[in-house]
């Protein structure tokens, strides 16, 4: 009977869920303490919390010059936001759009050994990697499109799907919605149209999802490629547009893991999103949108990455638990 009364009492008690209060307030402008990319609601009962990267010194801020209009850094494993600047802005993506194009093409194309001849309609005059009359396999065009950010190669690949540019853009938007990348909008596959737009957080998530596809990851980690037409025309060396990967902007990042995508049109400024490895298993993703110059986007991504690795401690680091206990 006592048990029954107790059970009746217990069942009459309700436990309500309360929003977790943000713990990023009170920090200097331009910098935040870590918090999860995903919003969640915690129950009022005690719960275990994940261990997240944290600063070695409280309230330290990144003070280097940054021309980028928008910038953001997340821990690749946990999604913890380590740095942000103007991340609510919706900005033109330029050729960063090709990441979504690649995801859709990867879904649609089944025979990468199929070949096609480059037409006048394919060629963007500003793109000098492939030329009218040359014949390539779709895999060749894929490499040229992602390594060299070739608009002509992307257009030829889209044509091979037998979809119009508008129909392909619909597929891109459907893919973005299915992946939960709700700020991303596309009107064409190359990124030449300034109406291809999105927020920094979704761009970082797009990179992570893209790199889970082996064919995309392999291309974005390749510093150069020789495009050789099947019909006997001259081969073209295609260099990666990622100057961290080619080391044209000097850096010590592990090139086996480093992978990124660039973008530029006048309306967007210079864009760059990249996965950057640090020491041990530490990996971050960095996005720079609207930098002032080509070189600046790489320098700012490099310098910000180095600062993050120098000033954050990860749960697997020896000093992490003693540092956490002192706070």
Question: How would you explain this protein's 3D organization?
Answer:
It is a single chain. This protein is an alpha+beta fold and 327 residues long. The chain has helices spanning 2-11, 98-108, 138-147, 151-160, 165-178, 200-211, 214-220, 294-311, 320-325; strands at 17-19, 41-43, 54-55, 70-75, 81-85, 91-92, 115-117, 135-137, 197-198, 224-227, 236-239, 259-265, 269-277, 283-291, 312-313. The strands form six sheets. The chain has a five-stranded antiparallel sheet with strand order 5-4-14-13-12, with helices on both faces. α2 (98-108) crosses α5 and α3 (138-147) packs antiparallel against α4. The chain starts with a helix and ends with a helix. Mean pLDDT is 89; it is low at 1-29.
